[in-house]
Q: What sequence folds into this?
């Protein structure tokens, strides 16, 4: 009977050890899963933040590398052109070919006319003014006070020397 009790006692200890070992194993696995989930969430959040920063940087780079005329500026220049020739804004078809913060150039045609012409505008005191327009050469005297970039005005006519000046 002593042997029988000893066997039962050994089996109880072994069984308890197995159950305890299984519980510890499951607890560790659960901790690893929680850490993995938490780590994955952190990585996902970090990746989303990086993607957002890259997207913002790309938008800024695109905006900086390819400036587009603002609708507001186009409307203001169109109004200035229409006023100069006493035309309705709705009869003034103006396109902007090049623009920076203070200068713009392009083409214009008024309703009912066969052909249009080029124009140059400058922002002066927050308002756009038509500096020069037409179909011929550009007078240096008209544009010199406004420092137009050479990309907009590569050459102009100098009345004093009666020559075409390459800028």
A:
């Amino acid at each position: 009977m002593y042997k029988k009790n000893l066997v039962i006692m050994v089996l109880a200890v072994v069984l308890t050890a197995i159950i305890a070992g299984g519980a510890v194993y499951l607890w560790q696995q659960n901790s690893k899963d929680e850490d993995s989930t938490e780590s994955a969430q952190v990585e996902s959040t970090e990746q989303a933040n990086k993607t957002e920063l890259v997207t913002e940087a790309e938008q800024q780079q695109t905006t900086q590398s390819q400036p587009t005329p603002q609708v507001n500026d186009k409307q203001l220049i169109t109004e200035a052109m229409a006023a100069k020739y006493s035309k309705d804004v709705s009869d003034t078809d103006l396109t902007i070919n090049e623009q920076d913060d203070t200068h713009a150039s392009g083409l214009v045609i008024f309703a009912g006319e066969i052909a249009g012409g080029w124009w140059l505008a400058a922002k002066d005191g927050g308002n756009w003014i038509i500096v020069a327009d037409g179909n011929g050469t550009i007078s240096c005297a008209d544009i010199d006070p406004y420092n137009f970039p050479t990309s907009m005005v590569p050459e102009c006519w100098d009345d004093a020397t009666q020559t075409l000046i390459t800028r």
Remarks:
- The two ends are 117 Å apart (CA to CA).
- Residues 2-65 form the longest helix (64 residues).
